[in-house]
Design a protein that fits this description.
205 residues, six-stranded antiparallel beta sheet, two-stranded antiparallel sheet, endopeptidase fold (from Nostoc punctiforme), single chain, alpha+beta, globular
């Protein structure tokens, strides 16, 4: 009985030894690709032949973050200016028209424009529609129907503030401060568009 136990233990030890030998050989095989020839480049610096060369074309992380932050800031500033413009216009809707008036309760067309932008924190001299036309730069194609663009009519004698591609706000001689559609009467009398530089646009530049 004892002899059988010893013989089985001896056979088991041989099997375990074989497994250990195979495992060691596999580890050596796995390590073999890590062995590399050492060479020297033209500057005398030693390097391994199979050294990995990593080439990065990505922008530095800091630059990406700063660009995103600047973009987010300009968008946020633009949204705030637009909110103030809309609030100022809403406060003046329905106000009567009086030639030469710039508020607080009565307006002419250029006085309405000047008053609205002043309430939104955009300051410039109070003057007439024709002077606004010469003072401010033409609006680009993508700016003509953007909220806050100035739109001019009737040989530069009338000015309003674009709401969107459908219409604008202005101080009408017959109706006071109102929203009017471009379609029809006003659309046929447009002279052109001008863009007042807004704080948000100055930040973006």
């Amino acid at each position: 009985m004892i002899k059988k136990i010893y013989s089985r233990l001896f056979a088991l030890s041989l099997v375990l030894g074989s497994f250990a030998t195979i495992a060691a050989a596999q580890q050596e095989t796995l390590r073999l690709p890590q062995l590399s020839a050492v060479t020297t480049n033209s500057e005398g610096v030693a390097r391994l032949e199979n050294d990995a060369v990593i080439i990065s074309v990505a922008e530095p992380a800091g630059r990406e973050i700063s660009t995103l932050t600047a973009s987010a800031s300009s968008v946020s500033a633009a949204a705030r200016v637009n909110e103030m413009l809309i609030a100022a216009i809403d406060q003046r809707l329905g106000s009567p028209y009086v030639w030469g008036a710039a508020g607080p309760r009565v307006f002419d067309c250029s006085g309405f424009v000047w008053s609205v932008f002043g309430s939104a924190g955009v300051q410039f001299d109070r003057t007439n529609a024709r002077t606004f036309w010469t003072r401010f730069s033409p609006a680009g194609d993508d700016e003509k129907y953007r909220l806050g663009t100035l739109v001019f009519f009737n040989n530069l004698t009338h000015v309003g503030i674009v709401a969107d591609e459908h219409g604008f706000y202005h101080a009408s001689t017959s109706k006071g401060v109102v929203y009017s559609p471009f379609k029809g009467y006003w659309g046929a009398r447009i002279d052109g568009f001008r863009r007042i530089p807004l704080p948000a646009e100055q930040i973006a530049e």
